[in-house]
Amino acid sequence: LKLQTMNLDEPLDVIPLERCDHPLWPEVERVTMDQLYYARLEVEDTPSSGGGNWELFAQDGQMRLYKREVEIDGLVCDPLKAVHTVTGVTAHEVCHQFFSPDVRFDWENTLDSMKVVENINPNTLVLHQIHKRVWPVAQRDTVFWSHIRKIDADTLRTKSHPNSSGKMLPYNVWIVCNNSVDRPDIDRAGCQRMRLVVSMCCELTIDPPVDDVAQITRDHLRCRIIYCSTINPGGWVPASVLRTLYKREYPKFMKRFSQYCIDLYKDKPIML
Ligand code: 6CM
Q1: Is residue 9 part of a domain?
Q2: Residue 41 belongs to some domain of the structure
Q3: Would you give the DSSP letter of residue 204?
Q4: What is the whole-number distance in angstroms between the Cα of residue 110 and the centre of ligand 1?
Q5: Which residue of 135, 191, 198 sits with most ligand 1 atoms within 8 Å of its CB, as the best mutation to test the pocket?
Q6: What are phi and psi for residue 154, nearest 5 degrees?
Q7: How far is C-alpha 216 from the chain's CA centre?
Q8: Can you tell me which atom of ligand 1 is nearest the CA of 192?
């Protein structure tokens, strides 16, 4: 097991893992890679914000949540970035739980229903979700593709100064990317359709480093979870209702979901 250092702030070249003829595939590739790059930028370095424009709105131990206040056509579409570091789980395990529809209701509590409407390939699904109604606004639904992939350390290459930041290269990185898709054919069931771009990017570090993978125990696993979300509510919602909801629900989600993963895997073999 070779652990190196790299500059995590440089753009990344990532080799596509598989080919697929589905018409959505070029978008899946592009958005997933964009989200990987965006997630791994430190909050101070996000170019679209002019740098350092994130507002820290919640903090608890290792967990930090930031937002930028953005309104489009009068609708709150605040980008959110949540960063948490947990021990005892791998990037693969955390992303697997976030991706897998089979366990969605074990940790997700904003949903009334979820249906897989298309299997693009084993790593890519299209889902229709109906979210719990929030008073006093119309109920929302979403239709989005969801894609999971592993980014090997070898496929993460920097353009220059690979060791300049002195950060340890993760053992591996996994990402799940969810992105809305236009599907007017899917019945809204009386809901207003929201649009979302969501990613969960997980960086696994082996700490302390070991010479042989066989020596790794759960005590060596340090997983940095970076969750990014931008939701367009798609129709009228009072700004204060939405911002209050996000401020309350996102920290709860980050804590609940990460603890769910830790508890689930604590006595199981490690899935690197
Ligand atoms: O990312 C999360 N869950 C994924 C799997 O379900 C998926 C869903 C994203 C939707 C996020 C919606 C957030 C707001 C939900 C409130 C209920 C709707 C009211 C709308 C009023 C306009 O990516 C975890 C989502 C955690 C949310 C706290």
Answers
A1: no
A2: no
A3: E
A4: 6
A5: 198
A6: -65, -25
A7: 25
A8: 22
Question: What is this model's ipTM?
Answer: 0.95
The pair of three-digit structure tokens given for residue 213, joined into one six-digit string: 């993978």
Smallest CA separation from ligand 1 atom 22, residue: 233
What is the tally of structural domains in the chain? 1
Phi, psi of 29 (to 5 degrees): -60, -50
Tell which atom from ligand 1 comes closest to the C-alpha of 146: 23
- CA torsion angle for 77, 81, 82, 87 (degrees, to 10)? 140
Which residues lie with the beta carbon below 6 Å from any ligand 1 atom?
A: 108, 110, 129, 131-132, 134, 137, 140, 142, 178, 196, 198, 231, 233, 237, 242, 249-250, 253
105 Cα–ligand 1 center, Å: 13
Residue type, 64: R
Residue with the smallest CA separation from ligand 1 atom 6 is 108
Would you say 80 and 250 are in contact if contact means Cβ atoms under 8 Å apart? yes
Give the domain range for residue 102: 55-265
44 and 81 Cβ atoms separated by less than 8 Å: no
212 Cα to the center of ligand 1, angstroms = 40
For residue range 41-82, what is the model confidence (pLDDT) as tens digits?
988 765 554 556 899 999 999 999 999 999 999 999 999 999
Query: In a 10 Å sphere around its CB, with 0-12 CB exposed, 13-18 middle and 19+ buried, how is residue 154 labelled?
Result: exposed
The pTM for the full model equals: 0.90
pLDDT in tens, 105-131: 999 999 999 999 999 999 999 999 999
User: Using CA atoms, how far apart are residues 172 and 205, in angstroms rounded to an integer?
Assistant: 7
In a domain, 236, yes or no: yes
Beta bridge partners of 79: none
- Domain with 175 in it: what CATH number? 3.30.530.20
Q: Answer whether residue 27 is part of any domain.
A: no
